Amino acid sequence: MLDHTLDVRLTDITIPGHGSVTTRTYNGAVPGPTLRVRAGDTLRLTQVNGLPPNPPHEGGHNTPHNPNSFNLHTHGMHVSPSGEADNVMREFAPRTADEAAADVAEPQYTTTVEVPADHPAGTYWYHPHVHGSTAEQIVGGMAGVIVVEGDVDEVPEIAAAADVVVCINELKFKDGKVPAFTSGTWVTGIRSTFTVNGAVNPTLTLRPGEVQRWRLVAATAFTGLRLTVAGSDGTMTVHQIAQDGVTFGVPVAREMVELDMGNRADVLIRGAQPGTYELRAENVPGPLMTIEVSGPSVEPAMELPAFLPPGRPPLDVSDIINPDADREVLFHSDARVFTGAFPNAFRMLGTNATPAADPDGNLSRDPVYGLFDSEYINHTLRLDTVERWTVRTDETVHAFNHPFHLHTNQVLLTHRNGERLDPPVWHDTIGIPGGTPGQSITFLVKYQDFTGRSMAHCHHLQHEDLGMMQTVDYVES
Question: Would you say 454 and 79 are in contact if contact means Cβ atoms under 8 Å apart?
Fold first, then answer.
């Protein structure tokens, strides 16, 4: 049992270049504490809502609201989505104005997650997921890392390496605070500040010949990260050993690691020539982290593992037995559908999209077609069945990315843009950039172990808060 308290309240933190900033935090820091468990453990979190009362809200449910309500999503973990577990249907509300005036005790909420005995060892993360408030809270720093320890950690070459969490937060501040999400241009109007473990461009030391294990976490709401480690002598190769919490069969050497919003990658990096290197992300000004390769060399150089205990067995199309096993999702946006500060409609179309208010009318102008409706079940998913999903975007701008995230069950990416991946790769979040045509992905997924309602959505969190989300219902076969 890991029994922990997460205290959420407005905190003054210092961000270099911004000075003192008031933001919502877990336990007074950005990011929140790293939580370490093992398969078979119970994670019990007591969450205190010390935030102010929610301001009044007069808009619809697919506009930002209740910025001081939250809940807890254990992103990527294969755990129950029901009851007091990874249930994003819950709302941990603050005191009302009357309760605060009467000095009523701050409310406390409990999340209890039973980690299955066969849960893959790997890197996951937690963040709030109340519809309408997620983006504003995460760009204020409400996020933390979950490490599930297990078999891969016992591989001798990995056990000998330093275990370094590299949590990359994307923060947005103005005038000493996180501004309220009040318009559709809020995201582009404020430049992002990127921190690693709460610091702007911290320095990490690596000895020549030393191997470290980095747990890279993209705790970002709006920006994907194409990561490289480069210095004056060129780019350092990293060896990826896991994606989204699932271990590979063998390490894969890479010059670049691509993380979309919500992704994680575990990599091994070995110190090369002494010098100064930088962890950089394409299209992000300045380094995320500085790496000083210095000090006495490790002799002989630390080894890299040749093989790894694979985190999940693969799936195959031959595992599909039900005739209606194919689902399609289209990420689509329509401009100027609504009046007011949020004019654009961010829709998820395709198989069983949320029905239109007027099915015979102009669907591009419809106020509910393809938008999130908490009372509508978009996908009924039966346990122990394997299905194939194709998800695409019709965005024409490459940088306009709609990462697809399915809660509760990992998915096996088999094709991108119709081309087969060899080998396929397990994910819980998959980036889908725009273009002409926009990209597409195909994955296999087996629904296992847990029943209850949960979500499939775009992990560009502004889009999710504005309606680019669907309800899935896991049911018994």
Answer: no
Under a CB-based contact definition with an 8 Å cutoff, are residues 35 and 2 in contact?
Answer: yes
pLDDT at 244 over 90: yes
- Sorted by sequence, the CB contacts under 8 Å of residue 118 that are 6+ apart come out as 39
Instruction: Give the three-class secondary structure for 317.
Output: helix
For residue 233, name the pLDDT band (cuts at 50, 70, 90).
confident
Whether 172 and 192 have beta carbons less than 8 Å apart is answered as: yes
188 contacts: CB under 8 Å, gap ≥ 6: none
Q: Sign of torsion, CA 312 316 319 323? A: positive
Q: Which amino acid is at 150?
A: G
The model's pTM is 0.97
Residues 269-292: tens digit of each pLDDT: 999 899 999 999 998 999 999 999
Dihedral (CA of 399, 457, 217, 246) sign: negative
pLDDT given for residue 148 in this prediction? 98
DSSP bridge partners of 330 = 349, 392
Adjacency order of strands within the sheet including 108-114: 19-26, 2-15, 42-49, 108-114
Are 122 and 311 spatial neighbours (Cβ–Cβ below 8 Å)? yes
Q: Among 314, 310, 303, which residue's Cα sits nearest to residue 121?
A: 310
Give the confidence band of 414 by pLDDT, cuts at 50, 70, 90. very high
